[in-house]
Design a protein that fits this description.
There is one protein chain. By secondary structure, this protein is of the alpha/beta class. Strands 3-2-1-4-5-6-7 form a 7-stranded mixed sheet, sandwiched between helices. Helix 3 packs parallel to helix 5. The radius of gyration is 21 Å and the shape is globular. It starts with 10 loop residues before the first helix and ends with a helix.
């Protein structure tokens, strides 16, 4: 599979400004003639409070699901675009300046990274992606997107707000303040409700419906700084969603991306069994044999024969804990606390390096942090200089998918044992609380 940058859909270009009304689109859904761009426009209109009739919204969401169109990659990609149009916009120049100031390493270019899952897998495991994202921010620039719990005891927002003695002020991180947060921190939690005012409109409707809708899929695809994300790991709760998400992300311009689903239908990399992976990767166009030049890194450039210099592929493979040099742990060993407060206590013990090196929760987190390190490209160098406690000896071994999983674990362990991950969280807490004080 391949796609050129010229074929990638753009949020602004592909959500039509001339909206059809919801009744006509509902009728098209009934007749089987609904078009992706019209569906996406309705998503935008709902979130923008331009559809006042709840019965119309329920009919639209129900028909979209029963028609199966909400499982089509182009429809999901377009709807993610439509939803992102409603997000508060972050100043792009400020974000570019932040990235330009970052150190490059391996094939990581200093860009923003995310680690996020669909949720809803029913396994009630510990808050892995949030903890792993904090660890990853010791070396990467992380924009962790998340919300409160919908079906578990503790969502990412709940976990962070339960940190003691002082939690971060998650509501103070907004489109206006985000660039200033990154002046002091390499980590930021992008609270969905702080960037999408329209979620308050659909939340009670979804709750009354009591069934899954396309909004259950859109979360991981709608990071407010999507266009600025260099690398991401996306967990899905059903294997059949893996290729759907990979295709949708590819359509929307994702390049360094790993979509994962644990064999037990887990929206993380499993610590107990194998994990299915779909890797989005950009490679040189084999039809071109022109000399490599600086321009080759620009996806918009063409070869002399008009062909794109690079193509984007989706490659599928499986991984397991042994590929990371770690042992297996049953999911029953990585169950969370009874509430967000207990999970926050586990988080802080982990970051303070108070857990045994082979602790099941720690190794579960290391697996997933390592995956983000690996897909970002930061593990690709031949040496490392992370700081105090780093031997500088890179583990060059590659595993499934051609990635350095064990090097990712080495870096994740260093982040915990050196205290860098804890320092990263503390910097974010300080920056967010300072921003809250300024708002007051």
């Amino acid at each position: 599979m391949s796609l050129t940058r010229d074929q990638v859909l753009d949020d602004k270009d592909n959500v039509n400004s001339e909206y059809r009304n919801i009744d006509s689109v509902v009728e098209d859904l009934r007749s089987g003639n609904a078009q992706p761009e019209d569906i996406a426009n309705i998503i935008y209109m709902i979130l923008s409070n331009k559809v006042s009739d709840e019965a119309q919204i329920v009919s639209f969401l129900t028909l979209l699901s029963s028609s199966g169109l909400d499982r089509k990659p182009e429809v999901v990609a377009r709807c993610a675009q439509g939803m992102r149009r409603q997000a508060s916009r972050v100043d792009q120049q400020s974000l570019f300046k932040i990235v330009e100031s970052r150190r490059r390493e391996g094939s990581y270019h200093g860009g923003f990274c995310d680690l996020v899952g669909t949720g809803g897998d029913g396994h009630s495991t510990y808050n892995v992606s949030t903890t792993a994202s904090i660890i990853a921010s010791s070396l990467l620039l992380v924009s962790k997107y998340g919300n409160r719990a919908a079906s578990s005891n503790s969502g990412s927002a709940d976990l962070l707000q339960a940190i003691k003695p002082q939690p971060p002020a998650i509501n103070s991180v907004t489109a206006d303040t985000l660039p200033r947060i990154y002046e002091k921190s390499t980590y930021a939690f992008l609270f969905a409700q702080a960037f999408y005012s329209g979620l308050r409109i659909v939340a009670p409707i979804r709750k009354r419906m009591g069934t899954k809708t396309i909004f259950n899929l859109l979360g991981p695809l709608t990071n407010p700084v999507h266009e600025n994300i260099e690398a991401r790991v996306v967990g899905v709760a059903e294997t059949k969603l893996g290729s759907l998400f990979a295709e949708a992300l590819k359509i929307n311009g994702a390049r360094k991306t790993l979509v994962v689903c644990g064999q037990e239908q887990l929206d993380e990399i499993s610590c107990a069994r194998k994990t299915s992976c779909w890797r989005i990767i950009e490679r040189p166009n084999p039809a071109l044999d022109e000399p490599k030049s600086k321009e080759d890194t620009d996806l918009a450039t063409k070869g002399e024969n008009g062909q794109p210099r690079t193509l984007v592929y989706i490659e599928q493979f499986t991984i397991e804990p042994s590929d990371f040099g770690l042992q297996r742990h049953q999911l029953s060993e990585v169950s969370p606390g009874k509430n967000a407060e207990e999970n926050a206590a586990i988080l802080m013990r982990l970051l303070r390096n108070e857990l045994p090196r082979d602790d099941p929760v720690l190794e579960f987190v290391l697996l997933n942090a390592a995956a983000l390190f690996a897909i970002s490209g930061i593990c690709d160098g031949d040496s490392s200089d992370m700081g105090r406690g780093d031997s500088g000896k890179v583990i060059l071994e590659t595993g499934p998918g051609g990635l350095r999983w064990k090097e990712g674990v080495r870096r994740a362990r260093w982040a915990v044992e050196s205290g860098r991950a804890l320092a990263s969280l503390e910097a974010y807490i300080t920056a967010s609380r300072a921003m809250e004080e300024k708002v007051r």
